[in-house]
């Protein structure tokens, strides 16, 4: 077997464990354009990284292995289909090093929740293995490898608040004075498969039963600059929401419960079924979390803030 001392690259890497934290994402604006020839929809989105996190620890090993605890344990396959393994292999191939690591995932981001948990784990694996192997890629190089793994993965390498175009993989930061936004997050019992939500939106659009696509995020970007949660709340929007609600009608009750709890805005996160509620401050987010828990409309209620950094060591 290959040993760390066998080549120069590995001697630059870490000898001890490397721990990486990675956030979940929500979309403050998710504008879904037409279906492209390659099967993806053209997106205009504003990504926002929030403080619900997964943790990935990487240690030296003779092969590539993955273990996990937390959300999805026993359900999520830990084989070559897992995005953590795919990301480690993609980085090894890009950098020309052996894909040898023992990886352990502590998962808090729910599966198929519309919070991009799988993409987050892929981003975490890139950052963790880059440090473990001493491959020393820049964030932009990591984002290039990330784009081959999934549309949301580049954003989770950067974090913060960022504009996403193309199929979401072309990311540029939104430059605004930093403001912390507070959220209450309602996590559902079971996930929704992202492709089925896009297919449902296509069906609704073909039937003339979907709202006009939102298009550009200019209004949302203007609202971010005003730093007023009520203004931001009025500008949040998600073209996928009617499709998610159509597939999962009880989401209408979750969104209504958020409004009753005093949310400045209630939206489905990405392809759902997670719903997010904008609060005016941290105390308001806590009070909404209490009310939503009492309303008993979902599996788990959490509070979060954003923006937070992308995948990072430590
Ligand atoms: P998005 O918001 O990007 O649509 P999501 O939050 O709805 O994502 P994920 O949990 O990211 O959904 O992943 C969806 C599917 O990807 C899972 O059901 C699973 O089959 C696959 N997958 C592969 N690796 C992972 C991983 N490490 N964590 C979660 N899902 C993974």
UniProtKB/TrEMBL annotation:
Binding site for ATP: 110-120
Residues of the active site: 25, 152
Domain of life: Bacteria
Record domain GHMP kinase C-terminal: where: 221-294
Pfam families xrefs: GHMP_kinases_C, GHMP_kinases_N
Gene Ontology MF annotations: 4-(cytidine 5'-diphospho)-2-C-methyl-D-erythritol kinase activity
Region (Disordered): 1-18
Catalytic activity: 4-CDP-2-C-methyl-D-erythritol + ATP = 4-CDP-2-C-methyl-D-erythritol 2-phosphate + ADP + H(+)
InterPro entries in alphabetical order: GHMP_kinase_C_dom, GHMP_kinase_C_sf, GHMP_kinase_N_dom, IspE, Ribosomal_Su5_D2-typ_SF, Ribsml_uS5_D2-typ_fold_subgr
Family statement: Belongs to the GHMP kinase family. IspE subfamily.
Free-text function comment from the UniProt entry: Catalyzes the phosphorylation of the position 2 hydroxy group of 4-diphosphocytidyl-2C-methyl-D-erythritol.
Name recorded for this polypeptide: 4-diphosphocytidyl-2-C-methyl-D-erythritol kinase
Species for this entry: Plantactinospora siamensis
Organismal lineage: Bacteria, Bacillati, Actinomycetota, Actinomycetes, Micromonosporales
Name of the gene this protein is made from: ispE
């Amino acid at each position: 077997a290959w040993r760390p001392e066998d080549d120069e690259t590995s001697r630059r890497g870490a000898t001890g464990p490397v721990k990486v934290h990675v956030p979940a994402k929500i979309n403050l604006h998710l504008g879904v354009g037409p279906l492209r020839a390659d099967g993806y929809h053209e997106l205009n989105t504003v990504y926002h990284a929030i403080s619900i996190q997964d943790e990935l620890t990487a240690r030296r090993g003779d092969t590539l292995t993955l273990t996990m605890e937390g959300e999805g344990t026993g359900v999520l396959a830990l084989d070559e289909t897992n995005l953590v393994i795919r990301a480690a292999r993609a980085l090894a191939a890009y950098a020309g090093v052996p894909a040898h690591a023992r990886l352990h995932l502590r998962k808090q981001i729910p599966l198929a929740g519309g919070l991009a948990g799988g993409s987050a784990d892929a981003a975490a694996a890139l950052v963790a293995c880059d440090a473990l192997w001493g491959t020393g890629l820049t964030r932009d190089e990591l984002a290039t490898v990330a784009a081959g793994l999934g549309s949301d993965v580049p954003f989770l390498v950067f974090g913060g608040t960022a504009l996403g175009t193309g199929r979401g993989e072309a990311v540029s930061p939104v430059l605004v004075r930093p403001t912390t936004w507070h959220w209450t997050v309602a996590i559902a019992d079971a996930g929704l498969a992202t492709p089925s939500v896009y297919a449902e939106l296509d069906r609704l659009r073909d039937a003339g039963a979907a709202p006009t696509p939102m298009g550009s995020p200019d209004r949302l970007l203007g609202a971010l600059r005003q730093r007023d949660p009520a203004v931001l709340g009025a500008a949040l929007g998600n073209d996928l929401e009617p499709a998610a609600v159509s597939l999962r009608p009880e989401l209408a009750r979750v969104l209504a419960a958020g409004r009753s709890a005093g949310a400045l805005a209630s939206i489905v996160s990405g392809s759902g079924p997670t719903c997010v509620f904008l609060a005016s401050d941290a105390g308001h987010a806590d009070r909404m979390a209490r009310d939503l828990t009492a309303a008993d409309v979902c599996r788990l209620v959490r509070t979060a803030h954003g923006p937070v950094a992308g995948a990072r060591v430590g």
